[in-house]
UniProtKB/TrEMBL annotation:
It holds the Pfam family NMO. InterPro entries: Aldolase_TIM, NMO. GO terms for molecular function: nitronate monooxygenase activity. This is Nitronate monooxygenase. Keywords: Flavoprotein, FMN, Monooxygenase, Oxidoreductase. Gene3D superfamilies: Aldolase class I. Coiled coil: none annotated. CDD domains: NPD_like. It comes from SAR86 cluster bacterium.
Length: 299
């Protein structure tokens, strides 16, 4: 929007408005791209494709439009990842949609439980992407205790059936697994990102605000390292996405796993190969059943 470039102003608490810091951060990104010989990809229409860099992509209107599509298409299962789905519950319920919410704190679980969800996902610090400051081992049982009869799915670092069994022993009804399925043949991420998951270890991720502006667990890269060494801090969401979007798009087009390897949880080290999702699921179920059966030996 035209209002992004203006004389620097401070907010009520004395902080500089993120919009007024944007120019310096965009220069940081351009300098990084020059250093890494990255070039903004050209889309099919002949223009530049940035995969971000537009505040409208992060606007309330954009998210409202997404929700409208979910309702119009009568999506059977919907999980809210960064907010309370309460305003949409009446329409979702009318469609018969099963509704879940991902939470990272007990207080958030209590808030969303009040709107009548079908399940709550308790996602700990081990998880990829935006997560919680609390580890899954501590978070899951506390959320279970707080929400009564609502089923809870444990998430964060769960990469195989043993993790699912462990979550169930903590009171969860099951596991919520993301990273393991990113390495599936059917996954929509780029091939170089899938290979980064196979090559990664449990120490290969970092919590960084460098991509979205919110703390998120991502595979360590030259981009995350650059921000750790920089004398400026990432901007809050949605502004940081305007900074990182062109970089991530260019790195993706160039298949640069050293710059855009993607998000991943600490269970990444359990991934040994790229294979069909059906094989991954089958092994998870079999391993979970075997793990739960062994639990009786300790009684």
């Amino acid at each position: 929007p035209a209002s992004v470039r203006r004389t620097a102003q401070t907010q009520g608490d004395g902080r500089v408005d993120p919009a007024d810091q944007l120019a310096d951060h965009l220069k940081f990104a351009r300098d990084f791209m020059d250093q890494e010989d990255l070039h903004t990809p050209i889309n099919h229409g002949g223009g530049q494709s940035t995969n971000g860099g537009n505040l409208q992509v992060f606007s309330k209107e954009f998210f409202d439009a997404q929700m409208q599509v979910i309702i119009e298409e009568r999506v059977p299962v919907y999980a809210a990842g960064l907010g309370n789905p309460g305003p949409w519950m009446a329409e979702l319920r009318y469609n018969g949609t099963r509704v879940m919410a991902v939470v990272g704190a007990v207080r958030h679980a209590i808030q969303v439980a009040a709107i009548g969800l079908d399940a709550i996902v308790a996602q700990g610090h081990d998880a990829g992407g935006h997560n919680s400051p609390v580890g899954a081992m501590a978070l899951i049982p506390q959320v279970v205790d707080a929400v009564g009869n609502i089923p809870v799915l444990g998430a964060g670092g769960i990469g195989d059936g043993r993790g699912v069994a462990a979550a169930m022993m903590l009171g969860a009804a099951g596991g919520w697994i993301g990273t393991a399925f990113l390495a599936a043949e059917e996954s929509g991420i780029a091939q170089h990102q899938k290979q980064a998951l196979v090559d990664g270890t449990e120490e290969g991720t970092v919590i960084s605000r460098s991509v979205t502006g919110k703390p998120a667990r991502i595979i360590r890269s030259k981009w995350t390292d650059a921000w750790e060494q920089a004398d400026i801090q990432p901007l809050p969401m949605p502004y940081q996405g305007m900074v990182s979007g062109p970089v991530m798009a260019a790195a993706g087009a160039a298949h640069r796993a050293d710059i855009n390897p993607g998000f991943a949880g600490q269970g990444m080290g359990l991934i040994k190969s790229i294979r069909p999702a059906a094989d991954i699921l089958r092994e998870i179920v079999e391993t979970a059943e075997a793990s739960l059966s062994r639990a009786t030996y300790f009684i």
